[in-house]
Amino acid sequence: MIPGADSAITRDGKALILAYDHGLEHGPVDFDPVPETTDPATVFDVGTHDAVTAVAVQKGVAEAYYPSYEDDVTLLAKLNGTSNLWMGEPDSAVNWSADYAAELGADAIGFTLYGGSNHEVEMAEEFRDAQEAAREHDMGVVMWSYPRGQGLKDDTSPETIAYATRLGLELGADIAKVKYPGSADAMEWAVDNAGNMKVVMSGGSKTSDEAFLSTVAEAVEAGASGLAVGRNVFQRENPEAILDGLEAVIFEEASVDEALATNDALTADD
Description:
single chain, alpha/beta, 8-stranded parallel β-barrel, 11 helices
C-alpha cells in the first residue's frame, strides 16, 4: 500500500463503495428484486449520492455508462471477474487492464484474489501486474480478498478473514474488501492484521435495514473503514434511504437508532 493512494475513493479516511459487478458475477437474478436495476444507468444514478465514494463496475459497463456520469461519480474499475456459470475451482478472469481503466478515467482498480484456491499463485501474479500498472497512473488499489477453494472449510472464520486482510497488506492493496467474520472482536483482529491498510466490509445478501446497519456499525466500531456494498443498496426500492443511514453510521459515527430515527424511510424491521 501507499499512504494516500486511496484518497480519490475515500472521504475523511472512510469509504462507501457501491459495487455493481453483479451482472457478471451473479447474473440477472440479482436484478429481479428491483427490475429497474438491470439498467446500469439506474445504479449510476444511485451512485451520485453524497455517501458513495466510488462505483465499482466491469469494463463494458464503464465504457457505456461512465462517460455520462464522470462529473458525478468516481470510477473504480473492477478488472477481473468470472460468471456464475463457471463451476471449477475459484478463479477470476482478467477482463481489462489498469492502463485501459486509466484511459477511461478510473481513479482506482479493484481485483479479486481467492486465497486458498488452486489458482491462488496465478491470481497473485495477475494482481501484481495490475497493482504495479495502477501505481504508474497514481490509482488506488482495492483487493476483493475472498479466501475460498476446495481445501478451505470456513471462508468466514475469524482466522480466515484475518488472513484475508493480511494478504491485502502483504500484496500491496490500499483497501481490502472482506466478508464480515461474525463478531466485532473478530473484525478488530482482522483490522489489526491489516496494519495501516484500510479494511472495508462486504455488503453481502440483502437484509433488513436495522440488521444491515447494525452489522456495518459493529464493523466500523471495530476499526473497519467502511463498506463495499451492492445488493443491500440496489435491491431496495428506496436505495437513497439506506445510503442516508449508511452515511450517518460510517461518516458521522451515528448510532443505528439515530440513523433509523432521522430517516422515516428506514425501518427497524423490513
